Amino acid sequence: MKLVSIVPRFFPLIDGIGDYALAQARLLREAEGIETQFIVADPEWYGLEIIEGFDVTHLARRFTSELFRNLPRANDEPVVLHYGGYGYAKRGCPVWLVSALERWRNENGERSLMTIFHELYATGPPWTSSFWLSPLQKNLTARLARLSDQRLTSLEVNAQTLNAMSGNGDRRTHNLPVFSSIGEPQSPPPLKDRRRRLVVFGTRGRRIEVYRRSSADLNRICSTLGIEEVLDIGEPIDKRSFEALSVRSSVAGLRPSGEVSELLLDSVAGVIDYPAAVLGKSTIFAAYCSHRVIPIVASYGDASPADGLESNEQYWLTDVQTERVSLDAGQAVADRALDWYRQHNLSTHAKLLAACLLGNGATHNVRSSSGSNG
Questions:
Q1: Rounded distance between C-alpha atoms, residue 138 and residue 93, angstroms
Q2: 200: which DSSP letter?
Q3: Domain spanning 191-342: CATH superfamily
Q4: Which of 5, 136, 276, 287 has the most CB within a 10 Å radius?
């Protein structure tokens, strides 16, 4: 079986959705024998026509006609759309994308579309552009929800929203938190056998925010845990970002996923700047969990339990009380995070994706949200 996967950006660029889609393609090939061809929608993307054996097509323009021309004509080649509005349009309103898929489906009702909703739509106060654009973004998301034969999202709250938007109670939205895009070690060692190292991994902007907003808390946590090094992994940032740290800082830069995995396996904790309420869609958080490090979250919004995650259970917030911080307590947190992750690991994803793509996903019983109101 072969499928076509649409992504906003792709390797060698660092992009959460693109990284996830590539890891998913590897998974489907290895576990289910399903091959993937990619369509990259960013006109400024640069890369090879074949990456890891996967054919890659690059759209020169974000036009409805351009995408429609490159979509498969065969009925037995499903399309998988990795959707996040801002990845396909500057203002998060990719009318061209949705129109192309509607035209493609209307041309032949036997064709199949699966949409993986990484984002739904933006919200914000009236003085922001997201407030005024939110109605159009919602409209596009609803159109995709109705158009898709299968829907997958990483958050339960999003699954409920998509079910309501689709107006079709017969099509459930499947809900699985994302998997680690840098692998799943079989037997990650206990924290006591690792270097006293804390990792800050992720996109450039997220890592800058960690140092800008959380250096004082990190210094306190590092002192309590006996951390000797803070290791920064990712696209290089200005060295001045580390000035407020009291612990020695090192820069790993961009590394292949295998090397990142090895570094995590020899580290005690990993920090991410991310809203706690939506950790289920973070591949970085998933990587921390799968590598049995202590996930530490710099979150300044709602930290209520969501998607089976709760502060001081599967992760610490950066403002965690000092009396809760110890290597033994951190080991318990890391163990619970790993247990949570294993409920939706690569194997679980492979089975659900294959079931959806082969046409029997409607009866699959892995974390799906049903009913018009979720």
A1: 9
A2: E
A3: Glycogen Phosphorylase B; (3.40.50.2000)
A4: 287
Residue 93's identity, in one-letter code, is C
Q: Report the amino acid identity of residue 10.
A: F
User: Angle at Cα 5 formed by Cα 162 and Cα 234, nearest 5°?
Assistant: 90
* Dihedral angle of Cα 165, 107, 69, 118, to the nearest 10 degrees: 20
- Phi, psi values for residue 216, rounded to 5°: -65, -45
Q: Respond yes or no on whether the N-terminal peptide bond of residue 72 is cis (omega within 30° of 0).
A: no
The tens digit of pLDDT for each residue in 124-151 reads 666 577 677 889 999 999 999 999 999 9
Helix (H) or strand (E) holding 283: helix 283-290
Q: What is the mean pLDDT of residues 83-102?
A: 95
What are the angstrom distances between the C-alpha of 277 and each of 157, 236, 302, 312?
10, 28, 6, 14
Q: Mention every residue, 6+ apart, whose C-beta is less than 8 A from residue 290.
A: 179, 180, 183, 184, 185, 188, 338, 341, 345
SS (H, E, C) 170-217: CCCEEECCCCCCCCCCCCCCCHHHCCCEEEEECCHHHHHHHHHHHHHH
Question: What tokens appear for 230 in the block?
Answer: 């803070």
Torsion of CA 141, 40, 206, 277, to 10 degrees: 30
Provide the pLDDT for residue 354: 86
Q: Each residue of 172-210: pLDDT tens digit?
A: 899 999 999 888 999 999 999 999 999 999 989 999 999
Six-digit token string for 27: 């998974």
Domain ranges of the chain: 2-176+345-369, 191-342
283-290 and 257-265 helices, crossing angle to 10°:
50
List phi, psi (to 5°) of 190: -65, 160
Taking the alpha carbons of 81, 357, 56, 118 in that order, is the dihedral positive or negative?
positive
How far CA 232 is from CA of 225, 227, 284, 337, in Å, comes to 18, 14, 13, 22
pLDDT for 291-318, tens place per residue?
A: 999 999 998 777 888 999 999 999 999 9
CATH of domain 2-176+345-369: 3.40.50.2000
